[in-house]
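Co-fold these.
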Amino acid sequence: MASIAEPIAKPASRFRFILDRRDVLGAVFVAPAILYVLLLVGVPLLLSIYYSVSAYTIYNPSWHFVGLANFAQIVENPDFLRTLSNTFIFTFGSQFLGLVLGKFGALLLLRPFPGRKIVRALIILPWAVPIALATVAWQWMFDSLYSVINWSMIALGVIDRSDAPNWLGNPHLAMLCVIVVNAWRFFPFAIVIFLAGITAVPQDVIDAATVDGAGFWRRNYQIIVPMILPIVTIGLIFGIVFTFTDLSIVFLMTMGGPVGATSVLGFEGFQVGILSGDVSHGAAISLFMLPVLFVVVIFMLRFIKRREI
Amino acid sequence: MQRVIAKVAGEAAFYAGVAFFVILSTFPFYWMVITSFKTNSDLYNVTNIPFWFNDPPTLEHFRYLFHETLFTTWLLNSLIIGVCVVVITLVTALPAAYSLARMTGRNGETLGIGIFLTYLVPPTLLFLPLARVVANLGLQNSMWSLVLVYPTFTIPFCTWLLMGFFKALPPEIEEAAIVDGCSLFGAFIKMALPLSLPGILTVVIFTFTLTLQEFVYALTFISSTDQKPITLGVATDLVRGDIFYWGEIMAGALIASIPVAIAYNFFLDRFIAGITGGAVK
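Predicted complex below.
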């Protein structure tokens, strides 16, 4: 038996000796992932920062350093300030709406009832399905002529055909539409997060509070809400990051229009940097996301650290 | 008696609430279904009641989608991209997660959090430099650019998920294998991997759905119709000038949505556990 095993083991032995050291194998194992992320996230991030302080365009790819001139030009542009405030309205409007819907949905789904599994599966759909595809369905529902929403309102006698709203053609309504679609996309996520949090609150804590005389609202807001706060915060952080930096809903539904009313940072960066080829200004616009991301990352780290203790 | 009425009213309000949420979630999908099976003359007639079929349903939009557009090519592209990204992700994330969970101690935890945080760096911040990287590699306007770029978000996410799975395995199993003469590498291949098969399956499904859901990079890097993945193709390529082929668009969206919706529902709980990083125990 040994005589068979030995010739195979011998040539591999030096190799095996190295790989049998825990620290060496650990480093070898983790290296590909770190390299991939460094090369295709880390380096591009630095490159993006360098673009923003250079005069780089796709027509004239020079690395000429221009300092903060790009940023100065961008900030002076009133359209950009509008884009910035649109981004905040879009993000916080849709997150707020999503959280409210999520909280109510979670309260409903907490109670067992026949068919709850199926209801949950259906409610999760907006979040599961690729957002670009759901967005075109909404775009069709907001169509200027064949909108099913308008049809229903006319049929119910709420509005007249002559003054039916042009959802995506009116600046205020268009903003409302992109907020609603984004909130629609995120509320199932909020429901799932709330449910995960609430079901993790130990029943004996709630029972003890009930015995001590805490009513429904008191139990809800003084015990359950504080206990689920960490997980809800993490969910909210994901929501904020992915909304603040998104462009697909705006790109597909309104193209930033009408007249810039729904333009957001991600879309503007795409418009300037990719479509117009002005890479340096596009990069500078996108970099306005960084401060928000930093704040979010710091929050995230605090919560992750807390869970370890 | 009054109590009974109050109870009935409460029940009614409860089920009305549930119905509201179900309608809110599913109406756009119902709309996809009904639009994709309607004849054009039925679709574009504002006097018809839009909620059901006024003309008999038709398969015309599906026929057009499969025969007159590159829909099958997009399906195939998405499949190829998905499979390649899954392979790249597994090959890099599995050993990385194992190493971070088992071999690198306290530093591994910090490093793991660092890798996970890169998941939060958004495509809209990276697409400009990555467009240059893609162009330098000669991959512009090719679906292989997506195979290269998609692992930048699947690797961080899956490494994090898998770290959780590996940590949940009792280390005694691998230690026993090593005592019995297995190498460290062998313990990983022969013990840890087979035992974490459910975790690996979750990662495969999620990587695949993440590649299907992605839109920004595909939009940035690809303009040729025959290179598009399905999400991009359906959303941007079924419009001629100002004319939207709504029946075809909705039919395509429907077909692409179904597998993702099913996959999500099966693996939702693991996904939540991964995304919240075990904040709930």
